[in-house]
């Protein structure tokens, strides 16, 4: 069975075409693939926070998370967004099972570095692959919301990219980030020029030079971490573009791929 992890970014959720769900459901049912979905939901969390008059800030693309923020993050991610994706699969011929990283302690987490600034933001310590395996054997497409839990039952807000990377590492499966940009761009403001390939070192230097900002920082870091930990196929593509999706599913090189780079093979 060929497992593949898709991270559906919050930026793209409302614009993901039905063909995405149809194709993934078909790969699952008829082509021997096992898709695993990890999702975000940043923009929806931001609008829910504003409805509740709770202000929100980000540090390096990560949301500063107080307990009050965490309640709303969990409500939006594990409720609204998770079930929206499950319903979309249902409408498009797929069987999906939604769960959060809290359920059966799927995503065991600890406080992120910089916790004094970030509050209840976590990083994944361990992915409980047995839980995923059980869901996979039941014949479903797992749809995972990025909330983590520690041994004391404390919840953590995980960045969706970080969670997807941890899941891909645990399954040693290709990882595809679906976002609202065609990849990592040379000049994001001008909206053109995509790096087709980045080595870990090049990616690191783009972050240092602030050529990537906001949500692209955790995304690139998550991609680099997956590659460092043995994931051989990491892509970033535009989930809103039907042609790009089709190219990806047809095995064509599209968007930005992140690779170890020659220099890493000798280390
Ligand atoms: N160099 C860059 N190339 C592409 N996108 C970038 C770059 N720098 C910053 N970004 C921003 O990163 C965003 C993608 O991250 P994010 O909003 O977290 O997406 P998602 O919700 O899909 O995870 C893009 O919409 C863009 O605004
Ligand atoms: C810690 C942290 O920043 N968590 C994210 C979780 C959602 C997410 O990752 O959504 P995207 O995929 O849209 O970026 C947040 O609170 O927005």
TrEMBL record:
One annotated Gene Ontology cellular component of this protein? cytoplasm
Annotated GO biological processes are:
L-arginine biosynthetic process via ornithine
Descriptive protein name: Acetylglutamate kinase
The UniProt annotation places substrate binding at: 41-42, 63, 157
Q: List the pathway annotation.
A: Amino-acid biosynthesis; L-arginine biosynthesis; N(2)-acetyl-L-ornithine from L-glutamate: step 2/4
Q: Which family does it belong to?
A: Belongs to the acetylglutamate kinase family. ArgB subfamily.
The source's domain of life comes to Bacteria
- Catalytic reaction list: N-acetyl-L-glutamate + ATP = N-acetyl-L-glutamyl 5-phosphate + ADP
Molecular functions (GO terms):
acetylglutamate kinase activity; ATP binding
- The UniProt record lists the EC number as 2.7.2.8
> Known Pfam families for this protein?
AA_kinase
Q: What residues does the Aspartate/glutamate/uridylate kinase domain cover? A: 2-235
Keyword ATP-binding assigned to the entry: answer is yes
What's the source species for this entry? Texcoconibacillus texcoconensis
InterPro entries membership: AceGlu_kinase-like_sf, AcgluKinase_fam, ArgB, Asp/Glu/Uridylate_kinase, Glu/AcGlu_kinase
């Amino acid at each position: 069975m060929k497992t593949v992890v898709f991270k559906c970014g919050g930026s793209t959720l409302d614009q993901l075409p039905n063909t995405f769900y149809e194709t993934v459901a078909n790969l699952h049912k008829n082509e021997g693939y096992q898709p695993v979905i990890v999702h975000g939901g940043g923009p929806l969390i931001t609008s829910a926070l504003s409805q509740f008059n709770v202000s929100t800030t980000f540090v390096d693309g990560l949301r500063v998370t107080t307990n009050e923020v965490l309640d709303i993050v969990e409500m939006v991610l594990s409720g609204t967004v998770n079930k929206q994706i499950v319903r979309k699969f249902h409408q498009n011929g797929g069987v999906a099972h939604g769960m959060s990283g809290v359920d059966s302690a799927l995503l065991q987490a600890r406080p992120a570095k910089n916790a004094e600034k970030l509050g209840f933001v976590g990083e994944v310590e361990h992915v409980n692959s047995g839980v995923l395996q059980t869901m996979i054997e039941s014949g479903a497409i797992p749809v995972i919301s990025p909330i983590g839990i520690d041994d004391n039952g404390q919840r953590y807000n995980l960045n969706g990219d970080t969670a997807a990377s941890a899941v891909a590492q645990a399954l040693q499966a290709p990882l595809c980030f679906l976002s609202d940009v065609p990849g990592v761009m040379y000049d994001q403001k001008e909206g053109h020029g995509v790096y087709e390939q980045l080595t870990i070192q090049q990616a690191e230097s783009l972050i240092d030079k602030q050529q990537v900002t906001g949500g692209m920082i955790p995304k690139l870091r998550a991609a680099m971490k997956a590659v460092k930990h043995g994931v051989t196929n990491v892509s970033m593509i535009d989930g809103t573009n039907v042609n790009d999706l089709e190219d990806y599913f047809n095995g064509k090189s599209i968007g930005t791929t992140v690779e170890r780079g020659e220099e890493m093979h000798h280390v």
